[in-house]
Amino acid sequence: MKKLLKSWPREWRGSRAGPAPPGEEDAAHRLAVFEDIERTISGWFWATDAAGCLSYISPAACERFGVPAEQLVGQPFVSLFETDPENPGERSDRPLQFHFGAHARLNDVTVRLMQQRVGPAGRSAWWALSGHPKLDGAKPEGGGKFLGYRGSARDITLEYERRIEDSRLAEFDSLTGLSNRHRITRRFDQMLAAFKTSARPATLMMLDLDRFKIVNDTLGHPAGDELLRQVAQRLARVVGDRGEIGRLGGDEFQILLPDLEDRGKLGDLANKIIALVSQPYTIDDNHVVIGISVGMAIFPFDGTEREEIVRAADLALYAAKHGGRGQFRFYSTDLKDEKEERRLLEEALREAIASVDSAEENWENPQLSLLYQPVVRTEDHVVVGFEALMRWEHPTRSAISPSVFIPVAEDTGMILQLGAWALRRACRDAMAWPHSVRIAVNVSAVQFAHPDFPGVVEDVLAATGLDPDRLELELTESVFMGDGEATDTAFKALKLLGVRLALDDFGTGYSSLSYLRAAPFDKLKVDRSFVDSCTLSDHNSAKIIAAIIGLADALGMETTVEGVEAFDQRDVVCAKGARLIQGFLYSPPLDQATVLERMRSEALRIVPDGPQRHRPERRLVYRRIGVIHADHRYEALLRNLSATGARIEGLVGVPVGTGLVLDLGAGQLAVVTVSRSDDAVIGVEFETPLVSDGAGGLVTRHRASAYALAAAARMVSASTPQFLEVEVRKRA
Question: Given this model, what pLDDT does residue 89 score?
Answer without folding.
Answer: 39
